[in-house]
Write a structure and sequence with these properties.
10 helices, alpha+beta, eight-stranded mixed β-sheet, 389 residues, single chain, Aminopeptidase, six-stranded antiparallel barrel
């Protein structure tokens, strides 16, 4: 398989030989160009601010990128974007990710101008002290910091632990009135200030790879279908849903709207190789070892087996996980909507979930894209996934 982001096969061949630049075909030159475009999209998309309930900035970037590869699209009332390929067919298939990221709400401003917060989604209080933040106001973005008492003044015997009760944002204001004058008020959203970087040319590091990494992958599947001139026998809905982090709400609405026959959801899952993970509890999953596929009540077993067979046929290495009740992803929303939707989950292994340094392997991104793509091109319209009739 050609590496998606690293040195492409044609590029490596060029580098290791004396072949002149003009020997490459037009297709190969376009291929290299598209890879650069893809990587720029990934970087811009991950750097966007799209907290739960306020996903519009990221959704606009995503939609602008995917427009050339879809036939039509719609945006629902709460901001979920649905791109459609080959519309109007009776059989409907969804590939889906969620667009929102964890964040903080301004909850209280004291007389000295310190801002107390509450979570928007599963924000991690333990990583907040000393972090820089952006507060998103109608007047524009305001910079702030999560302050924390210096080590010199904290009790050594009773070390205070950060929580939503004692975390405060400092925006350099002398009092509450000055904070309000900046445009900050109760309900203002705050996101961590952290941007895209690479580790060892093998890993992507950013906040909100959960799950804009998934949004990137489904967009690339749509691009690949278009560029390979694949004519699907069904309608494909490429869904970038909002509000997953507070209860799968965007996916619920999208599933009711589309009424699909099949849903393949992509999200992130824990790399359990890092220190302080317990494989006996969290399973054995590793960045760089391929997509993770989940077995659980919400996952339709025949669809899961189809994905496993596709992986085997295309020599895509996969990892396996088990979910005892729910998957905790939008898979659950699709699976149990309407009369039931054959659903499966393909996950991107990720280190340090819900931090500002979420980390994934380029190779796993490639393989997730390829696994979804290959599954779609062999899926037949009208396929009946029922266990028996």
């Amino acid at each position: 398989m050609v590496q998606f982001f690293g040195c492409l096969a044609v590029n490596q061949q060029k580098k290791n030989s004396n072949i002149p630049n003009d020997i490459f075909t037009k297709f190969e030159r376009n291929y290299l160009k598209m890879r650069r475009q893809s990587k720029k999209f990934l970087k811009d998309y991950l750097n966007a601010n799209s907290p739960t309930g306020f996903e519009t900035p990221g959704q606009k970037i995503w939609l602008d990128y995917i427009k050339p590869y879809i036939d039509e699209y719609e945006v629902d009332t709460y901001g979920t974007v649905i791109g459609v390929i080959n519309p109007g067919k009776q059989y409907k298939v969804v590939i889906e990710a969620h667009a929102d990221e964890i964040a903080w709400y301004v909850n209280y401003i004291d007389d000295k101008g310190y801002i107390y917060v509450k979570r928007n989604g599963g924000s991690d209080h333990q990583i907040a002290p000393s972090m820089r933040v952006h507060l998103h106001t109608k007047k524009g973005m305001v910079d702030g910091i999560f302050g924390w008492p210096a080590i010199h003044v904290r009790s050594r015997t009773r070390e205070p632990q950060p929580s939503s009760k004692n975390l405060t944002i400092d925006v350099g204001a002398k009092n509450k009135a000055e904070v309000l004058k900046m445009g900050i008020d109760v309900g203002t959203i705050a996101t961590f200030d952290a941007s895209f970087m690479e580790l060892n040319k093998k890993y992507v590091v950013a906040r909100a790879i959960d799950n804009r990494g998934g949004g990137f992958m489904i967009a690339e599947v749509a691009r690949k279908l278009k560029e390979e001139n694949i004519e699907l026998p069904f309608s494909l809905y490429v869904v970038n849903a909002v509000q997953e982090e507070i209860g799968l709400r965007g996916a619920e609405m999208a599933s009711r709207r589309i009424k699909p026959d099949v849903a393949i959801v992509t999200d992130v899952t824990h790399d359990t190789q890092s220190p302080m993970y317990n494989k006996k509890e969290q399973g054995d999953t590793k960045c760089g070892n391929g997509p993770a596929v989940t077995t659980g009540p919400a996952v339709q077993n025949n669809l899961l087996q189809m994905i496993l067979d596709v992986a085997k046929d295309n020599k895509i290495k996969v990892q396996k996980q088990a979910a005892s009740r729910s998957t905790g992803t939008d898979t659950d929303a699709f699976a149990y909507s309407d009369i039931g939707v054959a659903s499966a989950l393909i996950s991107l292994p990720l280190k340090y979930m819900h931090t500002t340094v979420e980390t994934v392997a380029y190779k796993d991104i490639d393989d997730c894209i390829e696994l979804m793509y290959q599954t779609l091109i062999q899926l037949e319209a009208g396929h009946d996934f029922r266990y028996f009739t």
